[in-house]
Write a structure and sequence with these properties.
single chain, 457 residues, alpha+beta, eleven-stranded mixed beta sheet, 16 helices, 11 strands, globular
């Protein structure tokens, strides 16, 4: 077979494989249609017959974050020069300018975006793609953690939190509580709609991560009553009332604990260990000959003296590598046995995926999480940060289950390179779908001389 014939045959076989493995209802274009359909159900905040519909304003905002535009100014330039592609790929009828987008979206309550996130999560569940993310029999592992996304010494709104430095300077900031479904052995995460950590309506006090956790988990359970979840959080969370709250809402948990914060718990634990009544296990690491894992644990301890009826199982773990030792400890409601402790440890340590695979990706791989797209007077910044997470969710769904997206990402080598190529093709070519864009990147395209639309001589 000649080289050119071989290349053609290889491409045909690749196309057959991609067509067979792409889940049509989970393709980029299907998910974009799902987002659009969800936005059509969002209530209007304006009176009369506005020129730009709410769904077009929301979809334009989504397009901005889907294409990873670094600012609203960049998207405004795209609107002026690439309106055709925005309309065909993102199903837009009219595209607002930057000022119109801010004005339309600022009064919109952020929870109006929840159906768009939930519809994609439900699609992953129906398509059996979510099953690939389950690590524990008790349910999907869901780490929660907070991160900042806005800070200023000049700009503020009524929802901003405040802090005063030692020299008396006041700064204003907003944070979000992020959550994702993760698997210790997978790079993909399924990000969930975040809960904003901000001053609540009518309150003069700052909000906190634990209060945001309660709000997030209450809403999540109402929307997904049958989804089995194991909550993973750091040492701010394991107190009696919060653990009772988790149990009442049907959540399992793996929560980091520190002996400095839980003297009663660790005193009782150490007494049992010193009596040699605690269970223990040592495992050699097959991948690292100089590393071993040491566990000891006790089931059924009171979390503290004030809540003796709130019982937890305490796992203490040491990772010993040569002369280096790392220590971790968690409380959980999952029974600890010789068969379960290694997986509980892996699940507990996977909490870092909310930081590494979620926040770091959003801040360092082209999503511009900490850029200020606009604070607004009411909810604008909250809408934008939730829209960022929605775009990230669609991308992660593609990375998890779309063979075409996976092939494109493998070819270009990094997410930043992929976003750059997408924006370049979006600017230079007439497109009808996201699939066309992906296939152009994967297979290449014919370069042609540009058709000049105006004589500048």
């Amino acid at each position: 077979m000649r080289p050119r014939q071989f290349q053609r045959q290889h491409r045909i076989e690749q196309e057959k494989w991609l067509s067979a493995t792409v889940r049509k209802h989970l393709s980029a274009d299907a998910l974009i249609r799902s987002v659009r359909t969800s936005f059509e159900q969002v209530g209007e905040t304006r009176k009369g017959n506005p020129q730009i519909s709410m769904e077009d304003a929301l979809m334009s905002s989504y397009a901005m974050f889907s294409l990873k535009d670094p600012s609203m100014l960049a998207f405004e330039r795209r609107r002026r020069t690439q309106g055709h592609n925005l309309k065909t790929v993102y199903k837009l009828k009219a595209i607002p300018c930057d000022t119109q987008m801010r004005t339309i979206l600022d009064p919109l309550p952020p929870d109006e975006l929840r159906p768009a996130h939930n519809n994609i999560l439900n699609a992953l569940q129906r398509g059996k793609a979510l099953e690939e993310m389950q690590y524990l029999d008790e349910g999907y592992l869901m780490p929660l953690d907070g991160t900042g996304y806005f800070s200023s010494e000049k700009l503020f709104s009524e929802h901003c939190q405040q802090k005063t430095s030692a020299d008396g300077k006041v700064s204003y900031y907003l944070q979000m509580l992020g959550a994702a479904l993760v698997h210790p052995e997978r790079k993909e995460v399924i990000p969930l709609i975040p809960e904003i950590i901000s001053r609540q309506d009518g309150s003069l006090k700052n909000d906190c991560e634990l209060n945001a956790s309660r709000r997030f988990l209450t809403k999540f359970r109402a929307e997904h009553p049958h989804l089995k979840i194991v909550v993973a959080q750091d040492a701010i969370s394991p107190n009696g009332p919060y653990i009772r709250f988790l149990k009442e809402n049907g959540y399992h948990f793996i929560l980091g604990v520190k002996d400095s914060d839980h003297a009663h718990l660790f005193t009782h634990f150490d007494e049992i260990v010193n009596k040699r009544e605690a269970e223990h296990l040592i495992i050699e690491d097959p991948k690292h000959p100089d590393r071993y894992h040491f566990f000891h644990w006790v089931n059924g301890l009171a979390i503290n003296a004030s809540h003796g009826d709130v019982l937890v199982n305490l796992l203490e773990y040491y990772q010993v590598t040569g002369g280096e030792t790392k220590r971790f400890s968690w409380v959980t409601d999952i029974p600890l046995t010789k068969e379960s402790v290694y997986r509980i440890m892996r699940a507990g340590r996977a909490r870092w995926k909310i930081e590494n695979e979620t926040f770091n990706t959003l801040k360092n791989q082209g999503y511009h999480l900490e850029h200020n797209y606009g604070l607004g007077k009411q909810y604008l910044s909250m809408i934008f940060v939730k829209m960022t997470m929605l775009a990230f969710l669609v991308d992660q769904a593609q990375q998890l289950c779309c063979a075409l997206f996976q092939a494109v990402l493998k070819k270009v080598g990094s997410k930043k390179a992929l976003w750059e190529q997408m924006r370049s093709l979006f600017h230079c070519f007439k497109l009808t779908s996201m699939e066309m864009l992906y296939r152009a990147i994967l297979h290449g395209f014919v370069l042609q001389e540009p058709v000049i639309t105006q004589d500048t001589s």
